[in-house]
Every structure is written in structure tokens, then in C-alpha cells.
Amino acid sequence: MKQYNQIKAKYPDAMLLFRVGDFYETFGQDAVKASNVLNIILTKRGKDSPSEIELAGFPHHSLDTYLPKLVRAGIRVAICDQLEDPKMTKTIVKRGVTELVTPGLSYNDKVLNGNENNFLAAVHFDGNRAGVAFIDISTGEFLVAEGGFEYIDKLIQSFAPKEILYQKGKQKIYHEHFSDKFYTYNLEDWVFTLDFAQENLEKHFEVKSLKGFGIDTLPLAIISASAALHYIAQTQHDKLGHIKQLSRLEEDRYVWLDRFTIRNLELLYSQNEGATTLIDIIDKTLTPPGSRMMRRWMVLPLKDLAPIQERHHIVKHYLEHNDFKSTIETQLKEVGDLERIIAKVATTRINPKEIIQLKRALVAIDPIKTACAEAKSKVLPLLGDQLNLCVALRSRIENEILDEPAISVGKGPIIAEGISPELDDLREILANGKQYLEDMRLREVERTGISSIKIAFNNVFGYYIEVRNSHKDKVPEDWIRKQTLVNAERYITEELKEYESKILGAEEKIHVLESNLLADLVYSMADFITPIQHNAVILAKLDCLHAFAEVATKNNYSAPEINDSLIIDIKEGRHPVIENQLPIGEPFIANDVMLDNDSQQIIMITGPNMSGKSALLRQTALICLMAQIGSYVPAKSAKLGLIDKIFTRVGASDNISSGESTFMVEMNETASILNNLSERSLIILDEIGRGTSTYDGISIAWSITEYLHENKIARPKTLFATHYHELNEMSGTFNRIKNHNVSIKEVGNKIIFMRKLVPGGSAHSFGIHVAKMAGMPAQVLKRADQILLQLEKSHSGDLKEEVKAIAADANMQLSFFQLDDPVLMQIKEEIENIDINTLTPVEALMKLNEIKKYMGVK
Length: 858
Description:
The chain is an alpha/beta fold. The chain is 44% helix and 18% strand. The protein folds into seven domains: 2-101, DNA repair protein MutS, domain I (MutS, DNA mismatch repair protein, domain I); 120-253, Nucleotidyltransferase, domain 5; 278-402 and 521-555, Orthogonal Bundle (MutS, DNA mismatch repair protein, Chain A, domain 3), CATH 1.10.1420.10; 421-518, Orthogonal Bundle (MutS, DNA mismatch repair protein, Chain A, domain 3), CATH 1.10.1420.10; 561-773, Rossmann fold (3-Layer(aba) Sandwich); 778-816, no CATH class; 818-854, no CATH class. It is built from 29 helices and 27 strands. The strands form five sheets. The protein has a seven-stranded mixed sheet with strand order 13-23-24-25-21-26-27, sandwiched between helices. Strands 3-4-2-1-5-6 form a six-stranded mixed sheet, with helices on both faces. A six-stranded mixed sheet has the order 11-10-7-8-9-12, sandwiched between helices. Helix 6 (194-205) crosses helix 7, helix 11 crosses helix 20 (529-555) and helix 12 (322-332) runs antiparallel to helix 14.
């Protein structure tokens, strides 16, 4: 316990898993927490004594089962192992923390999600700017950026790190500008100094300057990157040979998607449980690195024409050349998680089965490289040329490792035959031990003429030759007597002694030899980390574009035409997620949308609830976004001028934990849009102003629209869905505002949603019809119809007076139900006493007549 307390003192904020024999034990409050999180038994040591302490543990071989549960619960876990063999010491076994696992730092496959990066982020603040670094130690990716708080917050929302580091004492500024949904950890002030940061990074990358990474002019990014590396070193993750690159996230390379837009368009996540997101529809990748890259592309759409067109070109090649597509598909299925496997080489955590998977991946690269080289394409041969076959490494693995090796040393054979003569001899001894002894026995029988010779083994003498007393006069002189029994003698020979030492030490020697040979191979693999990481990036790109081709074929997407214009012209566009959720056989109603900066800058869309306004808004943004990540789009055709920013203000949501109402959230999001406009922005506004009173709402919505139209800096293309039909009047005053509505068809007193966008405004919301579809009680619906009719008839323009009139009418109607009237009480009793099941029609009429008399009606 003294040893435990010394180690625990170094890691006070982590749960210490303390290795004791075959168990990992936790003590004190750690044990209480572990018992609750892992649902394991909590016991006590030294009960009712001064040294009483809680205790909870689990078998060491169950670490992979329990560790992920602890990390997902947001617990930092220090793994304390025995650092020496208990057989080799007579004192307490030396122990030490071999790894500190946190939500943002893990190599454990059970903790990691193959389809997502496990980013650790570090943020550094200075004035109104910040730097951020994202590092995934499981893949070696290291990214940095610097900019305003809004940009850094957008990146954090996009990359969704599992853990964020920041400077002690900066809690207030962090919580003011960033979400509180992430796990955070504080580091000391001195870690966030520029001199330390530059020295730390230069030492890690073994360079004299950071100019080669393009970040030498970004001090806040440098400090953030260094803080992340320092934290990793602090947590006993000192083998970082796979972190060889540092990339800058340049703000002007990617489409601006703020955190509201990422949330509102449901790109990666949805606030609704069980909902389908865009990533669910288009991520048909075949490898984990491909899936992770797809998520990155989704939140970082390109805004440069050339790379977008390059992606479209490859998707087109997949679709037009089925043999090429088939080859890539077949081989990608063999690749596996190349990024995380090669990262394990640097950390020496790779197991023999993963080495064989690495070989399979290298074998699969060969036909992919050939297919790319032979493709009649301007892009694919260049991609294929960048693939490195790593022939020397592949050859070593093929020669040195068995095709089906054990998962670790000691669990079975790993090294192939012919690599080590000594290893082959030892395996021969183990495999053919019985036969060897039988051959020796037969030789001795032939030499001595003693047919009853027996060779056996016991723990006291080891191997021995046993001869009955009747034959002991035939025993050769070179046999050494070891034991005398009543009826027999036991002997040993030099050959038998030599064999015994061989066979008893064979297993241990095999473990040592295989460990050394495996370590030598893994050490040599370190030279191939950089080319294999580069291979992983190329293969992930081919995987993502193959997924786009798959989705385009399955869902009937078309190739968008991306250009430098300021026009969005979509013919028969569809919502990529909704069309996949429709019942079989029900077609999605496609719509045309045309926006430009000169004639139709703002489309004001009215129409009933549930008619499809919100879907139309979202699908327009999604089509533009999909085109700029390189995908084909759900439309008959789409001619799209490059978008540089997509803003959305959709739906109502409270942020009560921050003390913000629905309307405050709405205004915050809208203010962010209006303060960041550009000529190439696409703005999606849904029901602006509905979080306040009608007149306030109309006023705000009108002034926002006017601001977007009259803005001198930019004319952003805007789709505005609203229930405020008064806004239709704007098209008469502002020439670039056009009215459209989502049409419906009235049949009797019912409506049918046509879901078709047509020119012209709508003067009716049909809210009562939607309430009826939702199952609202008939009495409520009837009264709503009466109020609506009264308001429409009055049409005085004075809403306050109209409401007073309705209220007076309501009081008159409600008086009937005031049961303090003795007559009504009597009628109520009569009705309650009627047995409807036995009542005949004639009796019912008579009863009704009696009730009429109570009311004085003849």
C-alpha cells in the first residue's frame, strides 16, 4: 500500500489500475467509482481497522473489456504494471505507470471507433484570437489553425475532439466562446509559452525551423501544438515516431460552415434520437481511413474549382469503367485500417496478426497501382504513381511471419521456418519429443539387449532410464545410476541429460527467440512509416470517391457542373436523406431552385406547415455542399457557382443551460449570419422571428430581408421560409425578392400536400388542418375554426380588439358548462344515470324530451 500511495500521489486525478498478480486492483474512492461504472463487486480490506480501505478489481486479461467503459465515462486511467518478473526478486515487485489513457489518448482498439478520429485538441487564447491543434495518436494526424474565436469554435465542432486542453485560469474565456459538451483538462501556464513551444516542436520534428510546415507566423497555433505534444509525453506516450507531419488548416481553402449549420443540416449528428444523417447516406466507404476522411470532407467542403473538378472526374471514371471500379473495390476490402496499424509500429504495439494485415494491404496496393497507371485519365495515373509498394518490407513479412500467426508470443508459433536454425531445432524438439525418446530407447535396447528398458520423467530426477534388477548386469558402464528401487534401478546418460536441458528450456527459449526476431522485424518496419502513411491517404481518397460513385449509382445522382458564376440552378433537386426514408414505391417530389445575385437573389417561400418548406431549404444547401466535397448530387441537373459560406437558421431550440431563450438563440445565430456575409454566401432562413410576438417577428423578419437585399458589400443568395404572409409584399418594393409557395390542393375541407414549389405567395397557413392530422381533439379544432372565421370576417386590422371580441364570445359559450346552475346539475345527473347499453331508440327520444323540459324548451 505504501508503493500504491506513492504512485497514486503522482496521478491524483486519474483512476489507478494497480497490477497485483493476475488482477488489476483499485483502492479507496477509485474502487467506489470503478464499482459503479464497471458494475463490479466492492469489498473492503482491513475491515474495522485503521487501515480499512475499499477494494475493487478485475482479471488483468479483461483489461480490454473494462478500460473502454472507464474512458467512455470520461475517466482518466493510469495503468500501473509490474515492471519485473516476481520470480526474479525476493522483495516487493517494482511497479510503475506504463500508460495514462484519457478520452483523447488511446491506442486500444476497443476504445477507438474505426470510423471516427480520436482527436485530442489544445486551445490557446490571446486577446480576441486563439490557436488550436488537433492530434490523433492512433493515426499520427496532426493539424493546427489560428483565427478568431468563431473560426476556432467551428473547427472544434467539426472535428469533435474527445478531449480539449487549455491553460489553467482560462475557464471563463473557454466557456464564453466554446461548447461545454467536450471533456476538458487544464495545463500549467508555462506550457503555453512561445519559447518552450518552438523548442518542443523543433525537437520533436528534428528541425531547425517551423517554416517548412507553414506555421512559423502562427504563434498561437505553435503554442497549441506544443501543449498537445507536451501532454502526450506527460501521459507516458513517449513513442511518437509516427507523428511526422504537421499540417495547417487554412481558413480560405474551405467553405465556411458554422456550428449552427453543421447541426441544422444534420451532416454528422442529429439532435433527434435514431435520425438518419447525411453521413449515413453517403459514407459507403470500405476502409476505416476512408470513413474518417469522408467525415473530414463533409465538414470541410472545398472552395477551389480545380480539386473539386478532380474529384468529380474520378467519380465519373468509376462510373464509366466498371473493370477499374471492380478492381479498386476488391482490393480496398483487403486493406483494413492501414493508418492505425502503421501507428502501432511506431509505438511497438503491433501484434503478429496486424503485421499480416499490413502485408495484405501492401499486396492489395499492387493491383490498385497498376489499375491507376493504366486508367485513361489525367488524374488517376498521378495518384497511382504516389503509391509505394514497400517491396522490401512486404518481402520480409512474407518470409519471416507465418500466414496464420498467433496473436502474441507464447500463444503459438509466429516466426516462419528457415529464419532461425536454433528456433527450428527447438520446435523440432517440442514437436517430436516422444518420438525422439522412443528412438533413443530402441537404440539402447539394441545396444544392451535389454528389451524391457523404459524411459520416463519425474519432477525430482527429470528424465531417466529404468531397468529391472534381473537385467542390471547388462547395464553399460557409461550409464550413471541415479536411484535404486525394490525391483529396479534408474539411470541417466549424457545424451538424456542433454535432451532434458533442451526440452525443458525449449519453450522459454522459443519465447525469447520469437520475441527478439519479432522485435527486429518491427524495428525495421519503422523505416516505412512515412510511405505507408502516404499510401493510407491515397487509398482513403480513392475509397471516398468510390463511395460517391456507389451512392450515385444506387440513388440516381447526377454530375453537378461547378463553375465560377454566382448562379445556383438546380433542376428537379431532391433531399438526399428524406428520399431514402420514404416507403417503397413512394416517389420524392423534386423541385427546381434558381438563385442569382442580380435577378432572383432572395426567394420568399410561404406555404402550410408540413408542406415541405424546410426540406426544400435544406436540400438546396445539401446539394451545394455535396457538389463541393466532390460528390454527385440528388438532382436531374445542377449548375452551381462556387459557394464560400453556407449559413442556416433553422428551427427553434432553447439553450436553457446558458440562460438563453428560443428567441435569443435565434437572434444570436442570425446576427452571426449578418456579420459574416459574402458575395458567394448561401443563406437558409426558416421561420425567423417566430420566437417573439407577431408584430415584433414580422418587423424583424422584414428588416433582416431588407438588409440582405440592400447590403452594399454583398448580395448573398437567400432562401427564406416564413408564415408571415405580410412579407410577400416585399417583392413589390425590392426587385430581387421573389415570392414562391409550396403548393397544396384543397379537396372539400381537406388538403393534399403537393410539395411542389411554384411562383407566387400563399395567403393561408392551413395550421388547423395540420393540427387535425396530428390528432388534436375535435372540440379544439372546431373552436379554432370558429376563431379563425371570426378573425377573417372582422379584418379590422386591430388585432387587440379582435381578440377581445373573441374572448367575450368565449365567455358566453363557456357559461353553459358552469355547473353551479341547479338545472344543469339535474341534467348532468340524469345523463350520468342513463344505461346506454339497455336504452331502446324510443326510450332515448323520450329521455331527450324530458331533458328539454328541464331547460324550459317545448
